[in-house]
Amino acid sequence: MATPLDLDRTTGTALPRRSHQNFETWSWLFMRASGLILIFLALLHFTVTHLVTDVARTNIDFVGRRWQNSLWRLFDWLLLTLALAHGLNGVRWSVDDYVRNPTLRTAVKGTLYTVTAALFLYGTLTIVTF
């Protein structure tokens, strides 16, 4: 049973409760914050790319004109970064929940981190050098 204070086993005196904020707590908070931000970023991206601009006109020239403004590059990079980090964290949770073999879990996570890093580097390189 949980108590508001931990007890020192030798003296029986109350000890202040330690903070339970660890990586998983911050990971949980990141998922909520990034999910909320991603909703607005994705809706704005969808609106500009598919509603304001005719889909038939969304091509390399459209992207080139849009990326002449550094704020659009920053917007797209933020969308890329948050989407990859949010997705990586979600898949990591699923791997922790369903892959029981420690060796296989390590291999799956290693592959996951490698693919995510490659996609991030490729996407960043595209946005920066286009």
Could you write a compact summary of the structure shown?
The protein is mainly alpha-helical. Helix content is 72%, strand content 3%.
Describe this structure in words.
The chain has 130 residues and is mainly alpha-helical. Helices cover 72% and strands 3% of the residues. It contains 4 helices and 2 strands. It has helices spanning 23-52, 60-66, 70-98, 102-129, and strands at 6-7, 14-15. Strands 1-2 form a two-stranded antiparallel ribbon. The mean pLDDT is 90.
Helix content: over 70%
End-to-end Cα distance: 59 Å
Strand order of the largest sheet: 1-2
Given the helix and strand composition, which structural class is it? mainly alpha
Taking pLDDT < 50 over at least 5 consecutive residues as the criterion, the unreliable ranges are: none
Order of helices and strands: EEHHHH
The major sheet is characterized as: 2 strands, antiparallel
Number of helices: 4
What is the arithmetic mean of pLDDT?
90
Q: Give the tally of β-strands.
A: 2
Q: What is the radius of gyration? A: 22 Å
Principal-axes geometry comes out as elongated
How much of the sequence is in beta strands? under 5%
Strand and helix map with partners:
Elements: E1 6-7, E2 14-15, H1 23-52, H2 60-66, H3 70-98, H4 102-129
Antiparallel strand pairs: 1-2
